[in-house]
Design goal:
single chain, alpha+beta, 57% helix
């Protein structure tokens, strides 16, 4: 046990860069069992793969979960103690040939970390060829080695997750600093985004009935009803009225025409794709309004933060291509290559920030220009930080930050509390389609699934492996995907929000209700 504790202590002291932590895990695992070699395979959930550049070899290896001995361990979550590797049908001798090595005995074990009260697989460690301490000959791994590895895996899981959090935080800080620097240096000049004056006039002249405005201020608002060209001006007008109803136009000296041109400029930059389009942005903005009006968010956040929450909702996915960050990296799109060269992992989020800065650099679209100097500076920083925080790769990190920060309650007089609260609420609104009335939620589910499938189609055309969630040919029922997302991501997240802001109970309950309706559909399909 002391060997395990010593290895765990060494691991705890190495918190920081991922490569350092990974090498410490490898060193500790080898030391525990006197193994000749060790590899650490990390889980890539988007590709449903294991990958490693952290091993005794410099070669990067990548393979599907379920393939090989390590892939089998990732799939079952159970350790494997192999006495004769070449006698095991799952073993691939090509790796030995590639590396000029002979594998005889193996101990492969899963590395879990607890996330929001449940175990999540983060890696698989593979020990190769246990050496006898006296003769140096290769011998089988013992039952004690298995026990030590199981205990060590607990420390390794914590270390890996902490290092990821550290790297994400460092990346986000660097991204934010670059973008804030760009915002400061931008001159106020006409934008390249040309908003037609007739479009502005049409919105300004559009009349929205009191009944329609009242509906737009409720949790039952159906944005799908505005997905026709004839209703586009009405939707823009409704958004303006939502800002006006909260008195933000007056408080922050925003002329209606400036607000109108800003929204129209933003709308022009959204693409016609199934899910991440302008209607998603408008829906997130309207949801943020409901958090403020019906969720009592205005009792914990000041007007500036509430205004920035709604504003950022409109731009948080601007010019989304319907392809996620992973696609840009693995297919090496120009944006993916550029992000990789700068060390940023948030390909899309940085792009959204850059375009937002461009829009706000036009005096005729700059809804922040009437603010005091201090509010203006703070607003830019809040917008950038909040957009960067919508990266789903930083989902767990954001929860961990909120959990630690709000342990003794929320104090939004503390700038860090207010900033984090804003980011958490925007994240909630971003995935809030699961908290809408079921028929509205169902239409969003169809849209997001189609967008995933379109990405999968592109990946298949390019000869890339397709994640099962993005595979149109998987024949997976819509209800299955929704139950999975609500159960493992959505519902736990709204439970987390409700834990420090009780008024989120409503949205948590609707998510649970929708989950039940999807489960009923699944049950009906199997009867």
């Amino acid at each position: 046990m002391s060997i395990v504790m010593n290895a765990g202590t060494r691991l705890a002291r190495s918190m920081g860069k991922q490569d350092e932590v990974f090498q410490t895990v490898i060193y500790g695992a080898k030391k525990l069992s006197n193994a000749d070699r060790c590899s650490l395979f990390l889980v890539d959930k988007e590709r449903f793969e294991l990958y490693s550049s952290a091993s005794d070899s410099d070669k990067c290896i990548r393979f599907k979960i379920g393939r090989g001995i390590a892939g089998s361990v990732a799939q079952t979550g159970q350790h494997e103690n192999i006495i004769d590797a070449y006698a095991d049908y799952r073993f691939n001798p090509a790796f030995d040939k590639q590396m000029g090595y002979v594998t005889r005995t193996m101990l492969c074990f899963p590395v879990f970390c607890e996330v929001q009260g449940r175990k999540e697989l983060v890696a698989v460690s593979q020990l190769i060829n246990k050496l006898d301490e006296h003769t140096g000959e290769v011998v089988p791994f013992s039952a004690q080695d298995v026990e030590n590895a199981s205990q060590f895996a607990t420390f390794a899981g914590i270390g890996i997750m902490n290092s990821r959090t550290f790297e994400h935080a460092l990346s986000a800080r660097n991204d934010a600093m670059k973008l804030i620097s760009k915002a400061k240096s931008c001159k106020q000049e006409p934008s390249q985004i040309k908003v037609d004056q007739n479009s502005i006039d049409l919105v300004m002249a559009t009349h929205v009935s009191e009944a329609e405005l009242n509906l737009s201020r409720t949790n039952d608002f159906n944005i799908h009803a505005y997905k026709t060209e004839g209703n586009a001006a009405t939707l823009v007008k409704i958004i303006i009225e939502l800002f006006s109803e909260r008195d933000y136009l007056k408080k922050f000296n925003i002329a209606r025409k400036v607000m109108c041109k800003f929204i129209l400029a933003v709308r022009l930059l959204y693409r016609v794709i199934p899910y991440h389009n302008f209607y998603h942005a408008a829906d997130v903005c309207q949801t943020c309004y409901c958090y403020i009006k019906h969720g009592g968010l205005n009792t914990v956040l000041d007007d500036l933060h509430c205004f920035i929450l709604m504003l950022t909702a409109l731009v948080h996915d601007v010019d989304h291509m319907g392809l996620n960050n992973s696609f840009h990296f693995k297919t090496e799109t120009p944006m993916g290559i550029l992000s990789n060269s700068t060390g940023s992992t948030s390909v899309l989020e940085v792009h959204h920030c850059n375009l937002t800065i461009d829009i706000l650099s036009d005096p005729e679209c700059n809804v922040l220009k009437g603010m005091t100097k201090e509010d203006h500076k703070q607003s830019f920083k809040l917008v950038i930080d909040s957009i960067l925080a919508t990266d789903m790769a930083k989902h767990k990190e954001l929860i961990e930050i909120g959990t630690a920060l709000f342990e003794k309650g929320v104090d939004t007089t503390d700038p860090e509390h207010a900033r984090t609260m804003l980011q958490l609420c925007l994240k909630g609104a971003d995935i809030s389609n699961i908290t809408k009335p079921f028929e509205i939620s169902r239409r969003w589910a169809i849209a997001v699934t189609e967008e995933f499938f379109q990405q999968g189609d592109k990946e298949r055309e390019m000869g890339q492996d397709v994640n099962p969630m993005y595979d149109r040919e998987s024949n997976k029922a819509l209800a299955d995907g929704q139950v999975s997302f609500i159960t493992f991501v959505g519902k736990p997240y709204f439970e987390f929000l409700q834990s420090f802001h009780p008024q989120f109970q409503y949205w948590k309950d609707v998510a649970a209700s929708n989950e039940n309706q999807w489960k009923q559909q699944i049950a009906a399909m199997h009867t």
